[in-house]
Amino acid sequence: MMSNSSSSSSSGSTRGSKAPSSTHTKIGKKLIIGENGVVNRKKLNREMITSLQQDVEKLRKKLRLEENIHRAMERAFNRPLGALPRLPPFLPPMTLQLLAEVAVLEEEIVRLEEHIVHFRQELYQEAAFTSSKTNTECLLPDSSLASSNARESELPFSPKTLSVKESRRIKKNQLSANSTINMHTAHTQLNKSLKAQQLKESPRLRKTNAEPRSYGGADEKCDPNKISEDLVKCLSSIFMKCQENEEDTTSKDPYRICSSFRSRDIGPYKSFIDVKAASVNQNRSSYAFLIRQLKGLLGRLSSVNLQKRNQQEKLAFWINIYNSCMMNGFLEHGIPESPELVVTLMRKASINVGGHFLNAITIEHFILRLPYHSKYISPKGSKKNEMAARSRFGLEFSEPLVTFALSCGSWSSPAVRVYTASKVEEELETAKREYLEASVGISTTKMGIPKLMKWYSHDFAKDTESLLDWICLQLPTELGKDALNSLQQGMSQSIASIHIIPYNFSFRYLFSI
């Protein structure tokens, strides 16, 4: 009995001693697991940091490569035309191939643009000669005299033809001739005095004292766009002052659409001021103060800085400068006695912009429009100067709507307006809409479009049919419907429903100011 009890007590003590030891074992295992977890987390963190650093390094290398590719692409696309692009070997093969193809296409575009300018120049000369020939026939009613001079009249610049025309014009309109001579003489003296003053004055003195008090404040004197706006206003005022004694200076139908087609409302153009050669007043004293203002504005224009101008500012500025250049050219060189000389005047009319003398041809075809890189639109040797003007002043993107803003002082030109940098896009849309409303002729079975639209048709449509659809969309709603109906009627009756209205180079300005 006692033995049994002792054995049982010993076994109980043995179980009691085993319980604490197993507890310590479990706690130890947990501690080991916890330490391993911390070690693993640290190791995992180090691996993640290493992986992120490697990713960052890869991204840095990729960024450097992309920056190098970007610089290489900039050099390739901004290189002078005609120079082969310098392409680094690290560019992808597909990119190298595409850049080579672009270079070939650019050279082909230059070649095609030369052909386009050549054809446009021929169209200008042909239209000018046709207009000149028509005027000559009207001025020579005697059929025997016309037949005796027929062979000589075939030459567009025949001295004898021009002399007969000139003598007839002087007999027919002595007032117009005297006005032209007096304006030419007065403005020639003005330009001589201006050049002499510019040689004597320092740039700072010229910039400070050139502007009359009636134009702007101190900040506006330095703003190229404000100067260009004031130039258009001043020159427009000079031409309008020249005919201030006329009873009615507005033109109810400036392009004679209602007399050739159906009579209708031509829109805002019916109230624009119309200045013709015959109505120009020879009394210079009536606008002497405007001549002084013009002198100051031209002086300020010669020292403007055109850097850091955005697309809208450049666009508005150069439209105003082109129109000012042509108006100033008429004042300086006189109104041409024959229409074909208008093209010559475009080359002769020049204006000093920031120390660079630019003519109207350069401003239109190398700054405002796409560059034409051609020897045909300017004398030999000046192509380099025109390309330099394009590089220095050219717009980043060509704007087709300048067609409705540029006025060369001819009968068929759009009206002159002032264009501002803040609203130039809206103003161009208005100019387009109002010009088409006034110059497109519509009858029951026929639609007439101005020759100007035919010359620049590819700026707006791919073919004649698309151009007509585009024009109809630009007209007021009811007028556009009438135009479409007239085209459909003409087609259904097998009648030539399209009539190109010839371009008239005779002198005339329309002002919306």
Quaternary status:
single chain
**Overall mean confidence score, pLDDT:** 74
Q: Give me the Rg, rounded.
A: 39 Å
Query: What is the number of helices?
Result: 19
CA distance, first residue to last residue: 137 Å
Question: What's the number of extended β-strand segments?
Answer: 7
Proportion of strand residues: 5-15%
Task: Characterize the main sheet.
Answer: 3 strands, mixed
> Structural class, from helix and strand content?
mainly alpha
**Uncertain runs with pLDDT below 50, 5 residues or more?**
1-18, 138-183, 198-213, 372-381
Using the alpha-carbon principal axes, give the shape.
elongated
List keywords for this structure.
513 residues; mainly alpha; 7 strands; 5% strand
Protein described:
Helix 9 (224-242) packs antiparallel against helix 11 and helix 12 (311-333) packs antiparallel against helix 14 (360-368). The strands form 3 sheets. The protein has a 3-stranded mixed sheet with strand order 4-5-6. A two-stranded antiparallel sheet has the order 1-7. It has a two-stranded antiparallel sheet with strand order 2-3. The N and C termini lie far apart (137 Å). With 513 residues, the chain is mainly alpha-helical. It has 19 helices and 7 strands. It is elongated, with a radius of gyration of 39 Å.
